[in-house]
Amino acid sequence: MAYTELELLHLLIGFATLRPVNLLEWPTHISIDKIHHFLLHSVFLSPHFLSYPPSLQYQRNFWKWVLENLEIAQKVCQPFNILC
Description:
Layout: H1 3-16, H2 32-44, H3 47-51, H4 56-77
């Protein structure tokens, strides 16, 4: 398994085990598009998490953390005109 896949797997495991967001690690070696696709399909639209969702409080904290990290990643990419 590639390092980038391990980063995403750790993120998924963190969500599935309700790990506090301050202990989660944002994937840094993956494009924003790939992270977005992964979060959409493996977390948000996952049949398992749709049937057995975490508490609303945990979901709120997790998605807030995700949005903050996506915004930071986008700001890092913009000054350099690079695709992230």
